[in-house]
Design goal:
229 residues; alpha+beta; four-stranded mixed beta sheet; 11 helices; 4 strands; 56% helix; 7% strand; disordered C terminus
């Protein structure tokens, strides 16, 4: 069983703790911070600041995050100082499921990096295939396959098995392997090549999945049973 979202610190709690430390470091009261935010168009009162700093806000929208960073005079990444995985989605919206990311990866992303990922957590969020994967060693747990499965209207396990049959890796891992083989690239060129390779791999995987389904339509039950074994 995958871990429950309750085990992860909500991103709003992490941001609130950093805001509190920064505010106190500047010797501002909560009223002072609220007033400064108001002058920048964020109509906050002291109670808004108190809710954030006390951890009562699970998430923060991007506009609020940018305004807080500007008023406090720090880079966006400074508001995400901390360790471990953080919960990105509000538990109140979907208490048994959630999206998480490592704090250091989020800071890197806000600083312009592109080597970061989102992890799904929660009961029944991941299939048996996904639970077999060591999350600390692999790329986003077959996230691209899951998205492709939704586009094609097929079960995610079918796309997962197809990727394994094609490359012995997830699509993201195969993409990263090919990008790495290209050597040193600028960030812009790396992103462009990565996008191109991803599209090529998705096309190959789509063809593999659809051809498998056509075989199944013409007596392909044996293949399906082989996959189940």
């Amino acid at each position: 069983m995958s871990e429950s979202p309750e085990k992860y610190q909500p991103v709003g709690v992490m941001i609130g703790a950093n805001v509190r430390d920064l505010r106190k470091g500047r010797r501002w009261t909560q009223v002072t911070l609220a007033a400064k935010l108001s002058t920048r168009g964020l109509n906050w009162k002291r109670t808004h600041v108190a809710d954030l700093e006390s951890g009562r806000r699970e998430t923060i929208d991007l506009g609020t995050l940018v305004t807080l960073a500007f008023v406090l005079g720090v880079p966006l990444a400074r508001l995400l100082e901390g360790e471990g995985h953080v919960l990105l989605s509000p538990k109140a919206d979907w208490p048994e499921h959630g999206a998480t990311a490592r704090a250091d990866a989020l800071r890197a992303a806000l600083s312009g990096g592109n080597d970061w990922m989102i992890w799904p957590v929660g009961r029944e969020t991941l299939s048996v295939d996904l639970r077999r994967i060591d999350h600390e060693l692999r790329d986003p747990p077959v996230q691209i396959e899951r998205e492709l499965a939704e586009e094609l209207g097929v079960d995610p396990s079918r796309v997962i098995h197809s990727a394994a049959g094609l490359w012995g890796l997830t699509l993201a891992e195969e993409r990263n392997r090919r990008v790495k083989a290209l050597g040193d690239l600028s960030i812009g060129e790396r992103q462009a090549r990565q996008g191109h390779i991803t599209r090529e791999l998705k096309a190959a995987l789509t063809k593999w999945v659809l051809e498998g389904e056509e075989s199944g339509d013409h007596g392909g039950d044996q293949e399906d049973h082989a996959e189940e074994r």
